[in-house]
Amino acid sequence: MRKIVMLGSTPRAQRSLSSVQLPVDLECTSSAPVFYYSTSDFIYDLNDDNKKSEQHQKFKDLFMFRWECAKKENVFNYELNSMYKLIPGDFNLSIQLNIERGQLRRKPMRFHSVNEPFNALRWNFNKLKQNEVMLYMRCKDKPISVDRLDRHVIAINNSPLERGHSLIIPAISQSLPQVIFPATAMAIRIATDAMLLYDDESFHILFNSLLANASVNHLHLHALTWPYSSDIINRHMKGDLYVIRRPSWFISSIVFQLPSEDHFDKFIWNITKTVQYLNSKEVAFNIFFTRAHTLRTLGELCVEQTQPCASLVTAYIFPRVSIAGAKPSVSFNAAALELAGCLTAHSYRFFDTISEEVVLRIIDEQATLSDVFFNEICAKLSDLLLGIKSDHSSEKLEEHSHRVLKHSELTSPELDELRDSFQTFELHSPRRVLINNASSLDDDGASEFTFNFDHKNEKEKCNGSSSA
């Protein structure tokens, strides 16, 4: 049998210029296996046992087996030695103590723009060692990307947060920047596929854009399990296109859910269009993929489900304040996992003394957009996703984009100097919003932003239908 070398697994690997698809049964010299799957293997509702098959368990077992193999080869920077606790308060936050990650992880890079191009001179995933590659993903009946020579890699994160913490790297040899554009659909697609294949409610996939705590400018997503559920899945929202706003959660987010096979392409399209729009306006963002109950538009702000119900793939998109680059922190960096309420402390002192008030203040400083600016984004996205020609004023978004681009012309030392010269910030925590807006809360106990819909969508909503 002929053998081929998997592309993108070593620094010397080069992308083939051939347009001929390789036979799917070729043996690879790489020790990392190829996981073949079909769209019929997807689990849309994790609590529907009738839809599960051996293929689902195979993906999870192979994923963890390969991670454990890497552990035996000592490719990680440290042995996992973490502890957890829940933080008392309104948002049921959980926090992990992981001192080694704060001290031994690769120093995060600094960036100037959400759309910064790939730079081959800086560290990237083409420099992965062979024993750091866990497996490759290939869909047999619906290819992830147009070029079937692309290699979609799952590799270990050598400074893990938790057992199984890995990186998903779409089309590794293409050397795509951490922008998800123009490769948006491919990155969202592979994240969705992995979520639908992994048979575990505690499994999450994360994306951090540049200026939103991404540490490497090479397209990748994080995949990991977390022992505590994020309480964001229990939160109330409104609209056919769903939005969670403060104070329902401590940071506002745009939400899409995948209820069934019929909505697969629409789910990816919605996220793709949203991300492309944020990129075009230089708005930094994080995405948190998880399993959640059917989205709830009625009732209290937070209701924890006690009865068996659907467990569906759901994406929470957090538009946020841009930061010039991730810095080593004695507290935590507000990235995708943290905005979902799952925190990591790098010192025992912070872990021991942390309170919900401190967490909310840090996230206010690092991530929270003003309500006015978030509403402006939602209004634009509403028109975009519903196919309505927008006549909303875009002055705030254009001003934001211009400001980010202007700052991107500065060097890193100049940006540091600017940040150090400004010590004040506007505090707009969820608690303060709740107090100040008490008189304007609706019947459900929250002042929520809702999208405007045409008559047809209003009628569908009344009939109980929803669109993800």
TrEMBL record:
Keywords: Cytoplasm, Guanine-nucleotide releasing factor, Hydrolase, Nucleotide-binding, Nucleotidyltransferase, Transferase. One of its GO terms (cellular component) is cytoplasm. SUPFAM superfamilies: HIT-like. The keyword Transferase applies. Residues 58-224 form the GDPGP1-like N-terminal domain. It is found in: Cytoplasm. Signal peptide: none annotated. InterPro entries: GDPGP (IPR026506), GDPGP1_C (IPR058865), GDPGP1_N (IPR058866), HIT-like_sf (IPR036265). It catalyses: GDP-alpha-D-glucose + phosphate = alpha-D-glucose 1-phosphate + GDP + H(+). One of its GO terms (molecular function) is guanyl-nucleotide exchange factor activity. Residues 249-383 form the GDPGP1-like C-terminal domain. Pfam families: GDPGP1_C, GDPGP1_N. Its EC number is 2.7.7.78. It comes from the Eukaryota. Belongs to the GDPGP1 family. This is GDP-D-glucose phosphorylase 1. The gene is mcp1.
